[in-house]
User: What shape does this take?
Amino acid sequence: MANFSWLNAGTLITLEDGSQKAIEKIAAGDKIQTYDAETEDFDGAHIEHNEQTSGAVTEVQENTIESVDVSKISLSNDTNLVLSSDSPIYGMASDVNWVTPSKDAAEDMYGAGEHAEGEPESRFTELAADDSVFVDDGDGLSYDVTVEEVESQEGEDDFTMYCITDLENGGTLFANGVLLGIGVN
Assistant: This one.
């Protein structure tokens, strides 16, 4: 699964043992906390009912991203994320699992996805103030952290950002405690 979603330097990734490491220091072979959607009994509609596992990072890439493609998300737990605007975040909005700083950017990157009649026309919902996101609160997965603000970083200097391109197994990661998708199939 290709991931073209990027995280700003200094973003903390949760490791297998619960400790955190800045994304720019993550290397191939490091094991991070994840959920493996490929398991037979995985419940994608209720991520909180699944067991966390670990996945070994296979590659981390560095790139300069133009500020027009970057967003800052401020959260109610006094943390923030600076990430590419197409980044898939695990949240629930209007029966869609993926929320993102820019629905248009995510659809350009991953496509809107297939939908049946009566279902949402996109697998993405644009993230907004008061939306909840899944976070690892140290005792497990919690859904009580909300978004306070989503700000485009257009007009700022370009960002040196990092991308975990794939895991040995698993398809998610925790960035500053927030559950993100490695990518979207």
In short: The helical segments are 103-110. The domain at 7-177 is CATH 2.170.16.10 (Endonuclease - Pi-scei; Chain A, domain 1). The first strand starts at residue 7 and ends at 8. Residues 90 and 98 are 5 Å apart (CA to CA).
